[in-house]
TrEMBL record, chains A, B, C:
<feature type="binding site">
    <location>
        <position position="141"/>
    </location>
    <ligand>
        <name>carbamoyl phosphate</name>
    </ligand>
</feature>
<keyword id="KW-0665">Pyrimidine biosynthesis</keyword>
<comment type="subunit">
    <text>Heterododecamer (2C3:3R2) of six catalytic PyrB chains organized as two trimers (C3), and six regulatory PyrI chains organized as three dimers (R2).</text>
</comment>
<feature type="binding site">
    <location>
        <position position="108"/>
    </location>
    <ligand>
        <name>carbamoyl phosphate</name>
    </ligand>
</feature>
<feature type="domain" description="Aspartate/ornithine carbamoyltransferase carbamoyl-P binding">
    <location>
        <begin position="6"/>
        <end position="151"/>
    </location>
</feature>
<protein>
    <recommendedName>
        <fullName>Aspartate carbamoyltransferase</fullName>
        <ecNumber>2.1.3.2</ecNumber>
    </recommendedName>
</protein>
<comment type="function">
    <text>Catalyzes the condensation of carbamoyl phosphate and aspartate to form carbamoyl aspartate and inorganic phosphate, the committed step in the de novo pyrimidine nucleotide biosynthesis pathway.</text>
</comment>
<dbReference type="InterPro" id="IPR006130">
    <property type="entry name" value="Asp/Orn_carbamoylTrfase"/>
</dbReference>
<feature type="binding site">
    <location>
        <position position="86"/>
    </location>
    <ligand>
        <name>L-aspartate</name>
    </ligand>
</feature>
<dbReference type="InterPro" id="IPR006132">
    <property type="entry name" value="Asp/Orn_carbamoyltranf_P-bd"/>
</dbReference>
<comment type="pathway">
    <text>Pyrimidine metabolism; UMP biosynthesis via de novo pathway; (S)-dihydroorotate from bicarbonate: step 2/3.</text>
</comment>
<comment type="similarity">
    <text>Belongs to the aspartate/ornithine carbamoyltransferase superfamily. ATCase family.</text>
</comment>
<dbReference type="InterPro" id="IPR006131">
    <property type="entry name" value="Asp_carbamoyltransf_Asp/Orn-bd"/>
</dbReference>
<feature type="binding site">
    <location>
        <position position="226"/>
    </location>
    <ligand>
        <name>L-aspartate</name>
    </ligand>
</feature>
<feature type="binding site">
    <location>
        <position position="58"/>
    </location>
    <ligand>
        <name>carbamoyl phosphate</name>
    </ligand>
</feature>
<dbReference type="GO" id="GO:0004070">
    <property type="term" value="F:aspartate carbamoyltransferase activity"/>
</dbReference>
<feature type="domain" description="Aspartate/ornithine carbamoyltransferase Asp/Orn-binding">
    <location>
        <begin position="158"/>
        <end position="303"/>
    </location>
</feature>
Length: 308, 308, 308
């Protein structure tokens, strides 16, 4: 049995057994709390702190709900208001929070590697959970995507997964690849404008293409990424309409995928840019299941890290 | 018996029996929690989300206290920080929150009709509570004003109620008229500069005047509205001093009202503009009773909407 | 026995017995909650409101943790969002909060005397706790500093305490002097650039100097204050390097102090400006003990003020 985790900063190198254990635990917690309508006392008396240096109400709320449904207290450390703005070193902020006897710090930061920096400097028993760092990792997103796929298609080795959009700058894509590779997925295809694809050497196991029609062909899962509008300039595309024509998922393109292809998106959606309404709201969309699973996966992670 | 409410977006067309039931429940909850010094477990394990697109610490705090005193968890979804700022559609925000299994969404938005839009798109069992939309409705304010009046003057059919100020742009005034009309109030008088009065056709049951001295004559209740200073330009009045001379409630004017006339204001006060200190702090002021009743009324609404 | 406190706005004129009782209570609560890993129900059902007009995530979080570990609910009244911004009088904000039946208001404000103003206007049983007002007082900081010193050196009458930095504008320094004087400390030395020292008449019991080498000589405690960078202009010092050379605590200077001299700082640290890394992170640093004691002292204050 793989050892209990103390921190979760990335899914890279995490063995399949550890990932499966977290997904199993997510399902067990979902059932125990009756889909979020009942509170547990697994983490009663423990305190989780949200330390968000980048705005993300969606992810912060998901973590806050997860912690509260386990009976923990939650503190939102509003960083726009904080002494880090006054120039305090990150590790001084960390040590201050540790001295206050917090149990877990959920951190989001635009600088890649910040969660590892916190782990490196942590002195006490505090656990660090990465809620997204730079372009590098967003491990709970990788887990919730793996869980969503597993609920429909547990035969990972047979699956073709297409990830489309700005993969180069996407921590979601990276954590998805880590999770899916560990789960033994059959094939991962990357698709997007050349300027938004990662270096070929970063993911030798993935197939790269700029042609969405071929990338979606026979896919069992399509993960559409949000286009940051300021990235458009880096591409050859003149505007959002052109982006949608080349890389947007509409019903016509979805028909090229395998029957029952799961449509996924980490949100928030740019409707009409990377995804058409007919697909986002269609029968194959798993987008809201992803959101629901996000809470259960975060419960599982907090329960695993903070178990005594 | 009128059916249990699932949402509260407006008091318009709400029958007197439904309003009375909410007011009775507010009083019962006030007594059960010993005026807010004891917590109940009516909503233990439920989660209420505050979704405020307009700032209002006062109303948000009142809802937060109401939810907590019923034992619910509260999440503040700080919208300045949210993906709606990034251009997410409102119904996508709603569906995301529903997927996280929230029980109620308390919403304030500057666009009239936003709460109804949420109700129209709601897919799950979530309840929507309007905490103020545009110029249209602020139903818990209407309820707390009705409760405050009822505690002193339950004989609504005998009452003359004067509402003074910027009625045209006031959701408070509209919800007050809805509540008071349902309760069978004798007479409602509107008073303010012509530019700040609503169309005559909107409230045919009310008497309109620009002359405060006649409007206050014999009134049993005076509801003074906050003047948004940027509205002054629309009137013929040169400055705040002139506004106060024409539409401010001072002791001299209050003496023209009926004996024991109740003085009310939704807050925050512009002292010296729409109300004189001597009146705001005088024996007939019910302003702080309104604040206290606000918490109890919101408890009643949440308990009604979320009862299983 | 000194009477129970209802408010805590300053330590000035607080007798030693009252301070000792709070420190004893802090230690008792620390032990009762097992250093913050277990929640108590001392204040179950009570509500504490954080009313911060100045940003301070650190102090706000410490108060929030203290209140929650005693079982209280906490409301953060985000003042950037509040009607005070709309021009509501401070006492109207207070009365509104009182009408909502809050038990305690923790207030920080840049205007000296604001907590006393709240106490003067309080009508109900609400307790006011000063979390820092202007340059005047920060009583829980004074208490936590006294507790930190007492844990190592309970023989206050023998101690030489050196406070170094911008004392003139420091509420921390003032509350430290109040606490230490009440505890009967042997000698207090003030050190800093002339422009940042208070009037000589304000603290006749203290020794003033601009020479840090002599101020630190034989000191048992060194309290280093944060330099607000905008204060540099008031001094003769050209830059931060010059400040550090004159008033920074490094190993060389610490060697002039008494053996085992306690190194303290209220945080956040300006490393390399008022304190060297080797000292901040050295064996004599009590800085993180101060942070930990801050939570326990605030628990003691809230428990004392809100006890029934």
């Amino acid at each position: 049995m793989s050892p209990r985790l103390r921190h979760l900063t990335t899914l890279e190198h995490l063995p399949r057994a550890s990932i499966e254990r977290l997904l199993d635990r997510a399902i067990a917690l979902r059932d125990a709390c009756a889909h979020g309508t009942r509170k547990l006392d697994t983490l009663a008396g423990r305190t989780v702190l949200n330390l968000f240096f980048e705005p993300s109400t969606r992810t912060r709320t998901s973590f806050e709900l997860a912690a509260r449904r386990l009976g923990a207290d939650v503190i939102n450390f509003d960083i726009g208001f904080s002494s880090t703005a006054k120039g305090e070193a990150l590790y001084d902020t960390l040590h201050t929070l540790e001295a206050m006897h917090l149990d877990a710090i959920v951190v989001r930061h635009k600088v890649s590697g910040t969660p590892e920096e916190l782990v490196r400097h942590a002195m006490s028993g505090v656990s660090v959970v990465n809620a997204g760092d730079g372009n590098r990792a967003h491990p709970t997103q990788g887990l919730l995507d793996a869980l969503t796929i597993r609920q429909h298609r547990p035969d990972f080795e047979n699956l073709v997964v297409t990830i489309c959009g700005d993969i180069r700058h996407s921590r979601v894509a990276r954590s998805d690849v880590h999770a899916l590779s560990a789960m033994g997925v059959g094939e991962i295809r990357f698709c997007g404008p050349a300027a938004l694809l990662p270096e070929a050497s970063e993911f030798p196991q993935c197939r790269y293409t700029e042609d969405f029609d071929s990338a979606i062909e026979g896919a069992d899962v399509a993960i559409m990424l949000r286009l940051q509008k300021e990235r458009m300039a880096a591409t050859d595309l003149p505007d959002e309409g052109a982006y949608f024509r080349h890389y947007g998922l509409d019903a016509r393109r979805l028909a090229r995928a395998a029957k029952g292809c799961l449509v996924m998106h980490p949100g928030p959606l740019n409707r009409g840019i990377e995804i058409a309404n007919e697909v986002a709201d269609g029968a194959q969309s798993r987008i809201l299941e992803q959101v629901a699973n996000g809470v259960f996966v975060r419960m599982a992670v907090l329960a695993e890290l903070l178990a005594r």
